[in-house]
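Researcher: Go.
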Amino acid sequence: MKLILVRHGESAHNRGYKVAGDENNLTAVGVVQAIKLAESLKDQKFDAIYCSPKPRCIQTLDEILRVRDDDMPIYLTSLVGHKKKSENYEHFKDKIDLFLDDLRYDHEPNDTILVISHLSTIEMISYLQDDNKRRLENGQMVAVEMQDDKNKIQK
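Model: Structure:
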């Protein structure tokens, strides 16, 4: 299974502004980043999209969907949400493990899945797969191949 991991565009908090969680929207730079992502992904076939329910991720998703006319299931799920300050490492790891297990159960090995999420989540997915934390900047993406074996990805 191919995973396209996307980090949301630049948010107000990334820019250094003090904002409440649900008010942490994309900046003008973040919108441009999301538009560029959308352009680079417009011809990519997806079998499903999983997106964090945070506004900055949904705004990134909106820009991606704006240039597409295909029909695929879209899931907003807290399983790909960011790591909360109060959340311990093991709980966060278990949550991401659950998400990866769900993907294996719900999708075929040849499916391509788009995941729009946060730095901590993308790092954890990468770490669980190949012990390599991929540190993406805002508006960046990485494609990884998830093997049938539990928790194994090859680039």
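Model: The chain has a mean pLDDT of 89.
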